[in-house]
Amino acid sequence: MEVVIAEDEDAVARLAADAVAAALRRPAPVIGLATGSSPLPTYRELIARCRADALSFRAARAVTLDEYVGLPPGHPQSYRAVIRRELVDHVDLDPDHLFTPDVRADDIAAACADYDRLLTDLGVDVQLLGIGADGHLAFNEPGSSLGSRTRVKTLTDRTRHDNARFFASVDEVPRHVVTQGLATIRGAGHLVMVATGATKAGPVAAAVEGPVTASCPASVLQLHPHVSVLVDEAAATELRLADYYRETFRHKPGWQGL
Ligand code: GLP
């Protein structure tokens, strides 16, 4: 695992965009996208690079991590709508090449299994991730099996309150979601977690330097051979090995990439 402490959220975004750009240079790339506020600067950076012809999503497919269950069709806070609005509609990705969990299927368990199989078949090259205040990854709440696959989960009250800012009230935040499982996420070739701001300092330290435990789902990152954790100074304040991470990044050979 590599932890990079960048000076601010724009520097974090540039590094995350570099990781996506590296994946986009592969033939038939598959990019894993995340929602939440944390990846938004990365999407703005990717859109700017695409407009400047510095990268292209033309050959790419994109997948998402999770989705609310039970929102009315076309709801602006469905994660499919969010990812279209924040990235896909502004770059040269074919919208038919955006894959999200089917939360309207009559047999939702079968739809989850289908989505999981699709991800395995496609082979995700790079997966962007945020982290929840309680250490959740995608919508894998504390207690999620480290071996979990795509399935329906129930949100904690804390996550519903955290996400209420996107809705008129907390009562409108769905209780149920479909999320890639922790083992599903581990199937991607490169995991890139972005976290900025002081509220993420505790969860980042728990995920990166604490025990690997279902109580902190993001700690599953420690089991993956290729992880980049990109944080700003505020999100790095509780990292015991912060000086070592800084030293390592300062002396990283230019050819190495993330
Ligand atoms: C939601 C998403 C997660 C995201 C988390 C943190 O719960 N399902 O994928 O990491 O929010 O969001 P933010 O980046 O807004 O803090």
Detailed description of the structure:
There is one protein chain. By secondary structure, the protein is an alpha/beta fold. The chain has a single domain (2-250), classed as Rossmann fold, CATH 3.40.50. The chain has helices spanning 9-24, 40-51, 79-86, 108-122, 157-163, 182-186, 201-209, 242-250, and strands at residues 2-6, 30-33, 61-64, 66-68, 98-99, 126-129, 151-154, 176-179, 190-195, 227-232. Strand 9 (190-195), helix 7 (201-209) and strand 10 form a beta-alpha-beta unit. It is globular and about 55 Å long. The structure holds 2-amino-2-deoxy-6-O-phosphono-alpha-D-glucopyranose (GLP). 2-amino-2-deoxy-6-O-phosphono-alpha-D-glucopyranose is lined by residues 34-38, 65-66, 130-132, 138-139, 159, 163.
Q: Provide the succession of SSEs.
A: EHEHEEHEHEEHEHEHEH
Instruction: Describe the global form.
Output: globular
Structural class: alpha/beta
Given the structure, what is the number of helices? Answer: 8
Count of folded domains:
1
**Between the first and last Cα atoms, what is the distance in angstroms?**
10 Å
CATH class: Alpha Beta
Largest β sheet strand count, sense and barrel closure: 7 strands, parallel
Which ligands, by name, code or SMILES, are bound?
2-amino-2-deoxy-6-O-phosphono-alpha-D-glucopyranose
Helix content percent band? 25-40%
Query: What proportion of the residues form beta strands (DSSP E)?
Result: 15-25%
Strand order of the biggest β-sheet = 1-10-9-6-2-3-5
Q: Give the beta-strand count.
A: 10
Which topology does CATH recognise?
Rossmann fold
The CATH architecture comes to: 3-Layer(aba) Sandwich
Q: Averaging pLDDT over every residue, what do you get?
A: 97
Radius of gyration: 17 Å
Low-confidence stretches: none
